[in-house]
Amino acid sequence: MDHRKVSPISSDGHRISPLDRQILALAVPALGALVAEPLFILVDSAVVGHLGTPALAGLALASSVLLTVVGLCVFLAYATTATVSRRLGAGDRAGALQVGVDGMWLAAGLGALLAVALWTFAPAVVHALGADDEIARQAVTYLRWSAPGLVGMLLVLAATGALRGLQDTRTPLGVAVAGALVNSVLNVALVYGLDLGIAGSGGGTALTQLGMGAVLAAVVVRGARTAGSSLRPAAGGIWASARQGAPLLARTATLRAAILLTTWVATGLGAVTLAGHQVVSSVWGLAAFALDALAIAAQALVGHALGAGDVPRARAVLRRTLQWGVLGGVAIGVLLGGAAALYAPLFTSDEQVRRAVVVGMLVAGLCMPVAGWVFVLDGVLIGAGDGRFLARAGLVTLVVYAPCALAVRAWAPDGAAGLAWLTLAFSGVFMLARALTTGYRARGDRWMVTGA
After folding, report:
1. Is the pTM of this model over 0.85?
2. Confidence label for 151 from pLDDT (cuts 50, 70 and 90)
């Protein structure tokens, strides 16, 4: 491709540039795979919410723990995408797929260890978050029934990362859509059909995740066999995958710490705020991952460009995906904030919780354009392999956010007002701090290291 022909959308408003077509070809299918876990939690919230406020509040705690565990392991996808795309850009397809296989072996082993740990320590983790007896019982039940699904979800991360690096986002999309449908059916059947309550919701999600992981792993294995890559676990390759992901693990740890801190604050404000926070965070998470689809496109394209030594191409991807990210944030923010009163009743019949959800989503919608900027820059820097900077920046943003969250815990009331202040602290202050740090880095050129 002649990269000199890359240009913005043409003035006639109908034709789009080759770069825009590439971004959309990767971002639109990537959306499905990215929203898989938040969509599972969203479905669980809708199903469990009608079991009562204690069950929904318990799901809020449990899902925060689960998303933290999965989020800490997101390096399995991000580091793999960056390395695979660089090797592909350098012309080494067999080596790219070998990285994917090594990543899946790491995911399977890590998932098994984390599943056992989650089952064992679920009561202690929930108790540390400060829940009362009934909410704690619901949270522990969900965590233990969903624990086996961690093996599948981590395989999904590693396999999806490999496929993204190969610029195949359609396969994860198909698997994610099928998984979402199966998860919805299983949740309703187990929760209400077999009367398992919140345990059925956790078990149905775990079964779905295991199935998704098996399907995506089979796709990568088939590609590796065709390319001549080894399928056997190699200690050196697995260790290399772990080492490359370590900075991203540290970066994600600060992000998940901020999210857990937010849940802890919501717990301290009362059951209404906590239940409302579960809905707001679920919807916000779904929207955030929708914007993160652009970041996935940026990861793959920037990694490929830098692997091929094409710095101007990397800059062009950065500029264009930032434009898409901010505009997408505006559109999603208007949609989610404006329609909050319509979808809040889908999650709960409690009028106080509904009111809190509406107010919280209005605040979150106003902050969504900043999120679009943040996610794209995050993706660009991950694609460039700039994990060390992201780890340091994550610590800075956490230090900025923590006093704001603690102030909300100390002074905000329960209900709609408390959730509004808490949402403003997270989606406003925390996201703005991330925007400033990553924006400063992207202005320079230290992140643009070329070669495989």
Report:
1. no
2. very high
Give the dihedral sign, CA 56/57/58/59: positive
Query: ∠322-385-99 over CA atoms, to 5°?
Result: 120
With a CB cutoff of 8 Å and minimum separation 6, the contacts of 296 are 26, 27, 30, 34, 81, 164, 169, 379
Q: Treating both helix axes as pointing N-terminal to C-terminal, what angle do 387-411 and 431-443 enclose, rounded to 10 degrees?
A: 160
Please report, as a single letter, which amino acid is at residue 34: L
Question: Which range among 35-49, 172-186, 274-288 shows the weakest confidence by mean pLDDT?
Answer: 35-49
**For residue 9, what pLDDT is reported?**
43
Q: Percentage helix, strand, coil, to 5, in the chain? A: 85, 0, 15
Nearest residue to 48 via CA among 192, 260, 186, 206:
192
Question: Token match 């209900």: residue?
Answer: 415
The rounded distance, in Å, linking the Cα atoms of 33 and 36 is: 5
Whole-angstrom distance, CA of residue 348 vs CA of residue 403: 31
Distance between CA atoms of residues 428 and 421, nearest Å: 10
Q: What is the pLDDT of residues 68-103, one digit of tens each?
A: 788 778 778 777 777 777 777 766 787 778 878 888
Domain boundaries, the chain: 16-443
Report how far residue 423's alpha carbon sits from residue 435's, in angstroms, rounded to the nearest whole number.
17
What stretch of H or E contains 127?
A: helix 93-128
Q: Is the pLDDT of residue 322 over 80?
A: yes
Q: What residue type is assigned to position 93 of the chain?
A: R
Sign of CA pseudo-dihedral 316, 447, 106, 73: negative
- Structure-block tokens of residue 369: 């354009």
Q: Write down the residue that tokens 């006639």 correspond to.
A: 12
Task: Record the tokens describing residue 2, joined without a space.
Answer: 């002649």
Q: pLDDT tens for residues 251-261?
A: 878 888 898 89
Q: How many Å separate Cα 376 from the centre of its chain?
A: 13
The size of the chain, in residues, is: 452
Residue 4 has pLDDT above 70, yes or no: no
Residue 387 identity (one-letter amino acid) = G
